[in-house]
Structures are given as structure tokens and as C-alpha cells.
Specification:
Length: 341
């Protein structure tokens, strides 16, 4: 009888241990219905060869030509030297999330258009972990990936690590930073936090805009990221914005201008018709790197546009990569082959 009781107690303890262990497991989420655009180059700069939908998320180990969800090879893509841009909209509960991304080779992650992970370089198989706090509702995710040579590995998943309480104190009011245009009749909305970034639209007085992020890389004035009622997202200079609250609660974020130096040479040549300052960013407020002489030649890597005309050029001159003012520059080659930032 004693032996039976001992066996019963041991079995009960094992059951309790198994239940406790199961409660500690946190399930991963990979999302659904990712759209992948495949490029037959490693920098997303060539034409899209094929578009596929991956219903169950991003978890691939391609030892040869990439395949779709049905196991069919992706059209126009080889086993090496390709890149993919995956996009999706996923629904999140309010809380803190840990994103885990494993990739071989290069990887970028954007959440709601903001770059939060950037290692677009040739690497061995690497795992990246980052934490993001997300509000309840839909959020856009963009994953950019390339494979140089060898196996192509990619896994994107996230875990809810701390859910927001569902019963906040009734007196708690979320702190937001709104802004209105002051002292001017219109304020430019641009693709980046620089005077020379491409023009998206114009902000008008009398409208309240919700600010989502900030950037001070131009050096003189802080720029703010926002989305208009029409759905346009971009950057506006804080010089002509009046804020309702201090901006210290806004995250400082980077932009795609931070990685523009990695654009490849497309055979387009810039020839200045004046002495040109080569600057870190497309703005006269940005630091000067060097000067180009009248008639000097440089490779054009990227450009910004305003009013339908080229505004600034990103060039490589004698090993230095920086931005020059476009109106005083002649171009050899088809400038339409150069990406717009």
C-alpha cells in the first residue's frame, strides 16, 4: 500500500511540473499574408521579377532557388544574388513586443515606415533581437532581405512580453505631442528631415498634426515625422511648428537617407558648372565633406526631387560620398535610372 501511495504522489508531482512548464512557454507569432517582391539583384534596385504571397509568415531555409508556399520556384530568380521586399499589415494588442529575426545575409525591418533594424550587409547566419512598444490595432511591417551566396535563411517572429493593462486608471490621459503651423502660410512636408529632401506636400495653418518621431541630424532645427489627414507621411521642420507638449517623449529615429551611401553606381555622371560643396546630407545646413571643382566628374547614386525637377544629387567623388545641389550640375546618362529619395 505504501508503494502505491508513493507512486501516486510521484505521478501527481510530474503532472504539476508539466503544467507549470507549459505555462511558461510563450508562443511566437510570424503574422500572415506577407507579400514578397523578388529582385534579381542584391540591393532592391532592379526591376521586380516576381511577386508571391506567403500566408504563414516568413520562415525560410532556401538552399537553392527560392520557392513559394506551394514549393514552386520563384520566377526570374537564381539561388544567389537576389533581394526581396516583404510587406504586410498585422494586428497587435497593446504592449511590449520582442522581435527576433534570423537572417543570412542582409536584413532591414521597418515598423509603420520607421527603420528599426538595419544590417544590410553580407553576414553569416545571425539573430537580431529588439523590443518595440506597439499600440492596439493594425501596424505595417516591411522586411528587406538579400542573399549574396550560399543558403538563404530568413525567420521573422515576435513575442508579446508585456501586455498593457486593460483597466487603466480613469484619470490617466495619454500624453501626445500635437503641432500646428505658425508664422508661415505653408510648411513643406518632405521625405527626410532635410531642406533638400524630396517634397511630398504642404502643411497649412489651422490644422493640428500628431507628431510620431523626431530627428535632429540636420543640426540646426529638429524635424518631426507625421501623417496628414490625406494619408501622406513625411518630415516637417520644427522651425515653423508650435508643439502642445515637450518633444522628449518622441523617439529619435533614423531614415532611409542614413543608408543611401550604399546605393550602387549606375553609370550616371554628374559634371558641376560651378564649384560645389559636397555635404553629409541634402541641406545647406549639413556639414561639408569636400568640394568639387567646376567640370569635375562624379558618379550619381541617388537624388531628391522638388517641383518635378532634380533637387539634390548623392554623388561619389574621389572616394567621398555626399550630396550636391542639382540645379548647377550637368548629367551624362539617363538620370531616370537613379532612385529618388
Amino acid at each position: 500500500m505504501k508503494r502505491i501511495w508513493r507512486l501516486t504522489i510521484i505521478l501527481l508531482l510530474l503532472v504539476v511540473f508539466a503544467l507549470a512548464l507549459s505555462l511558461t512557454i510563450v508562443s511566437a507569432d510570424r503574422g500572415t499574408n506577407w507579400t514578397g517582391q523578388f529582385y534579381d539583384c542584391i540591393d532592391l534596385s532592379c526591376n521586380v521579377e516576381d511577386t508571391e504571397v506567403f500566408a504563414s509568415g516568413l520562415n525560410f531555409d532556401w538552399s537553392g532557388i527560392p520557392v513559394d508556399d506551394d514549393g514552386n520556384q520563384v520566377d526570374g530568380i537564381g539561388a544567389n544574388n537576389f533581394s526581396v521586399r516583404f510587406t504586410s499589415t498585422q494586428t497587435f494588442s497593446s504592449g511590449s513586443y520582442e522581435f527576433q529575426i534570423t537572417a543570412n545575409d542582409g536584413i532591414r525591418l521597418y515598423i509603420d515606415g520607421v527603420l528599426v533594424l538595419d544590417d544590410f550587409t553580407t553576414n553569416d547566419l545571425s539573430t537580431y533581437t529588439l523590443t518595440q512598444t506597439l499600440s492596439s490595432g493594425d501596424h505595417s511591417l516591411t522586411v528587406e532581405f538579400f542573399n549574396d551566396t550560399g543558403d538563404a535563411n530568413l525567420e521573422v517572429q515576435w513575442f508579446l512580453t508585456a501586455a498593457e493593462t486593460s483597466t487603466p486608471a480613469p484619470t490617466t490621459t495619454p500624453i501626445v505631442v500635437n503641432a500646428s503651423v505658425v508664422r508661415v502660410n505653408g510648411l513643406s512636408l518632405r521625405t527626410g528631415p532635410y531642406l533638400g529632401a524630396s517634397l511630398i506636400g504642404v502643411l497649412r495653418p489651422g490644422t493640428v498634426y500628431n507628431l510620431a518621431a523626431k530627428n535632429n541630424s540636420e543640426g540646426l532645427f529638429t524635424w518631426y515625422y507625421l501623417t496628414t489627414e490625406s494619408g501622406y507621411s513625411g518630415w516637417a521642420s520644427g522651425r515653423y511648428l508650435e508643439l502642445t507638449n515637450p518633444d522628449n517623449i518622441l523617439p529619435e529615429v533614423g531614415t532611409n537617407f542614413d543608408t543611401a551611401n550604399g546605393e550602387p553606381d549606375r553609370g550616371i555622371i554628374a559634371v558641376p558648372r560651378a564649384i560645389m560643396n559636397v555635404r553629409v546630407r541634402p541641406s545647406t545646413r549639413a556639414a561639408r565633406l569636400t568640394q568639387m571643382p567646376w567640370g569635375g566628374e562624379a558618379q550619381v547614386l541617388a537624388r531628391t526631387v522638388q517641383g518635378g525637377k532634380d533637387f539634390w544629387y548623392l554623388v561619389r567623388y574621389e572616394g567621398v560620398v555626399g550630396w550636391i545641389y542639382a540645379p548647377y550640375v550637368g548629367i551624362r546618362g539617363d538620370i531616370n535610372n537613379v532612385p529618388v529619395y
